Amino acid sequence: MNIVSTLDRLHAGLRRIAPRHEISLIAASTLARLERSGPQRLSDLHDPEGVSQPAMTQLITRLERDGLATRGSDPADGRAVRVAVTDAGRAAVARRRGAHAEGVARAFRQLSAEERAIILTAVPALDRLSELLRTPD
Amino acid sequence: MNIVSTLDRLHAGLRRIAPRHEISLIAASTLARLERSGPQRLSDLHDPEGVSQPAMTQLITRLERDGLATRGSDPADGRAVRVAVTDAGRAAVARRRGAHAEGVARAFRQLSAEERAIILTAVPALDRLSELLRTPD
DNA sequence: TGGATTACATAAGCACGTGATATGACTTCC
DNA sequence: GGAAGTCATATCACGTGCTTATGTAATCCA
C-alpha cells in the first residue's frame, strides 16, 4: 500500500512542524478535551487520549505544575480526581494552534491551487480515517 | 484553517497506530535512508532526518547496540563515521512497515469506497505537503 | 607548524511512554 | 458491620528520544 509511506512521511512532516516552545500534541489534545467537555476524571481522560493511566497522571502533574490545569476532588468519590483546564491552559492551546496553523499555512501556500483543492476535498475522509485509526477494532 | 485540526487528528491517529514492539519512526526512517542511499556519515544523516547531531549519535548507538546498524570508519577522514544498515536492520524496517500497513489497512477497510478513492486521489498532494512541511523555508 | 574548523561523542536534563506495584476509598456480601 | 474485593490514582524503575552545552580528536589552512 502506497498510502502507508504517504502517512509515514506525513507523520514525519507533522512532527517537524511542532514548534519547540509550544505545548505537545498530547498536552494540547488533553487540554482541548477539557475545554470542550468540561472537567473530567483522570480515568475518563487516559483512555480517549490513548495513553496509560500512569502516563495521564504524569501529564496532569506537568500541566498542573505549569499552571495549565488543576486537580480538584470529586465530592461524590474520594478516590477520583477532577481535572480542569485553567485560563492559561486555554491560552496555551490557542497559542499552539496558531503556531501550528502558521507552519501548515506556510507549506500550504507553496502548493498549487489544484493540490490545495484536492487536499481540502479529502479533509472529511481524512477525519474519518483518523477516527478509525484511533479505535483498534 | 480547518486543515490544521484535521492534520492534528491525523497525527494523533498515526501515533496510535505505532506498534509497540516495532522500531520507532525515526529509527525506521533513518534505516530506510541507509537502505536507500547506502552508508552515510553521521553528519549527513542528522540534518535530513530533522534532528540534532547528538540525537543522531544516540540513535545510531541504540541501533548499533540492537544490531540494526554498524559504525565503520571512513578511510578518507579519520573523524568521520560511516553508518550502514545491517540485514537485521532491513528486516526490522520491513517488519515495521508490515505492521503499520496492517493498522492502516484495518482502518481503510472501514471507509466507504468513495472515501478511499478521495484519499488515494490526494496521495500525491499529501506527499508534496509532507515534503514542504519538512523544509522550513 | 599552530590555530581554526569539523565530526563525533559525552553529559545533564526534560518530556513522554511503559508495566508493575502501592495506597487509600468505595462496594459488596455474608 | 467488617473483612474482602474492586476501583482510582500515584509511584517506581526503566526506556526512548529530544535538547543545549561542551569535550576530544582529526583535518584544514594561513
What are its keywords?
DNA-binding; three-stranded antiparallel β-sheet; globular; homodimer; Arc Repressor Mutant, subunit A; 6 helices; HTH_MarR-typ (chains A, B); alpha+beta; 137 residues
Task: Describe this structure in a few short sentences.
Chain A has 6 helices and 3 strands, in the order ααβααββαα.
Structural features, described:
Two copies of one chain form a homodimer. Chain A has 137 residues and is an alpha+beta fold. Chain A has a single domain, classed as Winged helix-like DNA-binding domain superfamily/Winged helix DNA-binding domain (Arc Repressor Mutant, subunit A, Orthogonal Bundle), CATH 1.10.10. Chain A is built from six helices and three strands, in the order ααβααββαα. Chain A has helices spanning 2-17, 25-37, 42-46, 53-65, 87-109, 113-134; strands at 40-41, 69-74, 77-85. Chain A has a three-stranded antiparallel β-sheet. In chain A, helix 2 packs across helix 5. The longest helix of chain A has 23 residues, at 87-109. The radius of gyration of chain A is 17 Å and the shape is globular. The two termini of chain A are 20 Å apart. The mean pLDDT of chain A is 95. At the A-B interface, helix 1, helix 2, helix 5 and helix 6 of A face helix 1, helix 2, helix 5 and helix 6 of B. The structure holds a DNA duplex (30 and 30 nucleotides). Chains A, B: Residues 1-128 form the HTH marR-type domain. Chains A, B: GO terms for molecular function: DNA binding; DNA-binding transcription factor activity. Chains A, B: It comes from Actinoplanes philippinensis. Chains A, B: InterPro entries: HTH-type_Bedaq_tolerance (IPR052526), HTH_MarR-typ (IPR000835), WH-like_DNA-bd_sf (IPR036388), WH_DNA-bd_sf (IPR036390). Chains A, B: Keywords: DNA-binding.
